[in-house]
Amino acid sequence: MEKTWNNKAWFMVLPVLLLVAFSAVIPLMTVVNYSVQDTFGNNVFFWNGSDWYTEILESERFWLSMVRNLIFSATILAIEIPLGIFIALNMPKKGWGVPVCLVLMALPLLIPWNVVGTIWQVFGRIDIGLLGYTLSSLGFDYNYVNDPTDAWVTVILMDVWHWTSLVVLLCYAGLVSIPDAFYQAAKIDGASRWAVFRYIQLPKMNRVLLIAVLLRFMDSFMIYTEPFVVTGGGPGNSTTFLSIDLVKIAIGQFDLGPAAAMSIIYFLIILLLSWVFYTVMTSVDAER
Amino acid sequence: MNLTWMAWTLPTAIFFITILVLLCGMAVWEYVSPGGNPRVGVLRFETTRGDRLFVSLLGSAFIHLAWLGLVGPNLWWALALSVVYAVGVFRYV
Q1: Among residues 33-92 of chain B, which lie with CB inside 8 Å of chain A?
Q2: How many CB atoms lie within 10 A of CB A270?
Q3: Measuring CA to CA, which of A11, A207, A220, A246 is 20 to 30 A from B34?
Q4: Cβ of A279 under 8 Å from any chain B Cβ?
C-alpha cells in the first residue's frame, strides 16, 4: 500500500519553530553578526571581516582548551558509560529496592551545577574537606589547588558523581523494557550471563545508550559551572575548558568579536561531533 | 522594530537570507516531491534531502574555516569549493 503524505502536519511544529527562533536562532544570528565586527561599546560596531576567525584559528590558547575539553569528554564517557551500564544491570528489577535505588540515583541530578561545584570544592579541601583531609592524612600529596593532576582527578570525579546517574537511569529504562520472553528463551538455550548481556540487553539498550552518549558528550563538551566553581580553570590553565576560556574572553576581557568567532567555531565542532555520533549509532542500529 | 542591538551588516544579512531561501526552496521541493527522496549513497547510510542539505552546509562551514586557517582571508575560492562540495553531496551522498 502506498504511503499517504500530508504536509499540513508541518504546521503543527510552527509553535516550536517560533520558540526555537527566539531562544536559539536569533541569538545565534547576533553572535554571527558580532563575529565579523569589532566594538568598543555603546552599540557602535566596525566591520572586521574574517579577522577574528583567523585570530582564533591561529591561537594556541584556543587549541589547548580544545584538546583539554576533548580529553575531558573522552575520559568521562569512558568512565560513565560502562559504569552506568554496570550499575543499571545490578539494580533490582522488582520489590522495595526499585524506588529506593531510583531515588538515590536521581538525587545527584537534582542538585544545581553551582552547588555541585561548591560541594566538591569543599570536599576536596585539605584543611576541612572530607576527601582532601582523608587523602592528606593517609600520606597522599593531594592538593587540587596547586597540582594540575589533582585538579583533573577532582573535576573528573565530580562529573562522574554528578552524571553517571543519568546513564544509569537511561540504561535501567532500557533494561526494564525487555520482555521476560527474551530471558526465558536465553535460559532454554543455556546462554551464559555474558551472552545474555551481549545479545539481548546491549542491543535493547542501544537507543537509550545513544541518547546517553549524545547527552553526556554535548554536556561535557560545554561544561562550565562545576570546574569553574572548583578550580576556576586552574591551576594555571590546566582545567580551562573551551567554555571557561570563552567566558574569560567575552566577559573578562570584553572582547566580543573574538568571543563570538570562538563561539561559532565551538558550535560548529559540537554540531559536527554530535552529527557523527548520531549517524554512526543510528546506522549501527539500522544494520541490526 | 529596532534591530540595531543585533548589529546587522549587509554581508551577514545576505548570508542569512541565502540560508532562508535555501530552506524555503527545500520546503517547496518537499511539497512538490514529498518523502525526502531517501537513498543510500557513498557514505553507506540512508540520507534524505534534508540530511544532504545539512551535510552540505556543515561541510561548507568547515571548508571556509580550513581555508581561513590554511590559505588566507580571501574566501571566494572557499565559496566556490563549497558549491562544488554541495553539488557532490546532493549527487552522491
Answers
A1: 34-35, 44-46, 54, 58, 61-62, 65, 68-69, 73, 75
A2: 15
A3: A207
A4: yes
